[in-house]
Structures are given as C-alpha cells and as structure tokens.
Design brief:
Blueprint: H1 4-21, H2 26-33, H3 47-56, H4 71-84, H5 93-98, H6 101-114, H7 136-148
Length: 149
C-alpha cells in the first residue's frame, strides 16, 4: 500500500514539522526541502538557488532563471537575483556551473548571514543573550580571575 514516494513525503513532512517546532531557521528548512545534500552536484544547475532566493525574497527574486536552458546564462540570472539581496559574493557563473563546493558553501554562508529567515528578537529575548564583549584573551583572563577568587 505504501510506496517509497509516500513514505519519503511523510518523512519530509515530519522533518519540516520538527524544524518548525524547534524554531530552526526558515533558511535551513528551505534547503532541506530542496534536498540539498552537497554544495557541488546538487546546486550546479542553479534550480535550488533560484527557489531558495525566491523563497527568501519573493518580491525581489523571480523564478525566471528556471526557464533558461543555458546553465551559464541561468547562473548569471541567479547571481543577479543574489545581487538584489546584496549577496553576490564568492561565486561566478562559471564556478556555480562547475559545482565548486567551497565557493558554493561560502555563497550560501554569506546568504544565510545576511538573510537567515529568522524573526527579529523580541525585547524579552534580548537579555538572554550571553555577554560576548571583549576578545578571547580578556574572557580567559576574567575566567582565571574568577577561579582564583
């Protein structure tokens, strides 16, 4: 009665439910739904990037690159969409189509850092943030002082 497709859809729905339940950022939910398992062969056709950018900013990033058959032209259109989000870094159309995993990972990391898909913190959440002032040495010195006191 259950075929492999039905089972995969049920598992994907459960995964998305758990992501929402535990407040996993929208950015990672979208990547998961797109079945991106690596940053080379899974992204080099540009389809996943087109959908991701459209989901993050539908008013700025269209799905028009999906209609383009030439991969280099599609890659350029994708990077033009990324430029609208001020995220056109690290990738060239050639490196996207080649499936360079390091450059693709850097591109996605930059995209996440600038558009994480997270809701802004509410005032009641702000005091819970740890104090990260000072450099590593200053924090280590403070810990040593606290331990000797």
């Amino acid at each position: 009665m259950w075929n492999g497709l039905g089972t995969r859809l049920i598992l994907k729905q459960a995964e998305l439910f758990n992501c929402a339940k535990y407040s996993i950022p929208l950015f990672f939910i979208i990547l998961s739904a797109l079945s991106v398992n690596n940053f080379s062969s899974d992204v080099k056709d540009g389809e996943n990037y087109t959908i991701l950018l459209n989901q993050l900013a539908p008013d700025l990033c269209s799905k028009a690159p999906l209609r383009e058959n030439d991969l280099l032209t599609r890659a350029e259109q994708i990077l033009q969409n990324a430029e609208k989000l001020n995220c056109r870094k690290y990738l060239s159309p050639q490196s996207l189509v080649a499936g360079n995993p390091k450059l693709n990972l850097a591109f996605v990391a930059n995209l996440f850092n600038t558009h994480p898909g997270l809701d802004p913190l509410e005032e009641v959440e702000r005091p819970e943030l740890p104090d990260v002032e000072g450099d590593r040495e200053a924090r280590g010195k403070k810990r040593r002082e606290d331990m000797t006191a």
